[in-house]
Write a structure and sequence with these properties.
This protein is α/β, with parallel strands linked by helices. It is built from eight helices and eleven strands. Strand 10 and strand 11 form a beta hairpin.
Length: 244
């Protein structure tokens, strides 16, 4: 058995190279393997009741792998936090809480999307609290699909503008990365020494001193110029990129 991890593909029709790269990637997991999608799989998601040929294509590709005996786990990101049970049923996925702990080859791993670790971005954390509120989500999903799409597009444009302001003020590096103390807190809270997350688009393996105990934070990369995957099997851990 091999466990595969990906995140931050930001799938949408205009990114044809990323879609093609994902379809090629799906040839790697074999029967008995596990595939973990740790958030921001889609660039925008306005509800399971919205579909189009592109979304159907992605769902069918995942369902085909599920039918072949690959366990697929889906975790929400900050772009696709409205993915629900209907999508997972149609795509053959299991919805995974953020955070979750899984055991692989005798080691326990804390899985997260990663945005909850970026506590120095105070404004984003306030927005995140609102967006993850079940009452807000219910109210949002009661709107028309077109209204939801327009809201998501406007919110994305505003977010990009604010991120540009942070970058111009030379604040991006510090504010938008994880807060080290939050990483330590999460590891200690869940009683683990290994963490896997995405979100920051800064793929790396970070060694951590957890009060004298060696620990590790593995960051998945986003799919833009290259794709990124994390592979864990009986031979160990391999974080690598590949051509799209």
């Amino acid at each position: 058995m091999t466990a595969w991890f990906i995140s931050d593909l930001h799938l949408e029709p205009k990114y044809e190279n990323i879609t093609a790269g994902f379809m090629a990637f799906l040839e790697k997991p074999q029967s008995g393997d596990q595939l973990y999608i740790l958030g921001d799989f889609f660039n925008i998601w306005v509800g399971d009741d919205f579909t189009n040929p592109y979304i159907d294509q992605i769902k069918q590709a995942l369902k085909q792998k599920s039918d072949q005996g690959i366990e697929i786990f889906f975790m929400h990101g900050n772009r696709d936090f409205l993915v629900g049970q209907q999508f997972c049923n149609e795509a053959g996925c299991t919805l995974l809480d953020d955070p979750s702990v899984v055991e692989l080859f005798g080691e326990r791993y804390l899985l997260m999307h990663g945005d909850s670790l970026c506590t120095r971005d105070v404004e984003y954390m306030q927005v995140r609290t609102m967006l993850r509120n079940p009452q807000w989500q219910q109210q949002f999903l009661s709107q028309s699909i077109q209204g939801r799409i327009e809201f998501a597009q406007n919110a994305r444009a505003e977010s990009q503008s604010k991120n540009a302001e942070k970058a111009s003020a030379d604040m991006m590096e510090d504010i938008m990365d994880v807060t080290p103390e939050e990483v330590i807190n999460a590891l200690e809270q869940h009683g683990v020494t290994k963490m896997i997350h995405g979100h920051t688009h800064r793929p790396a393996r970070h060694q951590i001193d957890l009060d004298g105990t060696p620990a590790e934070r593995i960051v998945l990369g986003d799919w833009y110029e290259n794709g990124w995957q994390l592979k864990i099997d009986e031979d160990g851990i391999e974080l690598s990129d590949f051509d799209l």
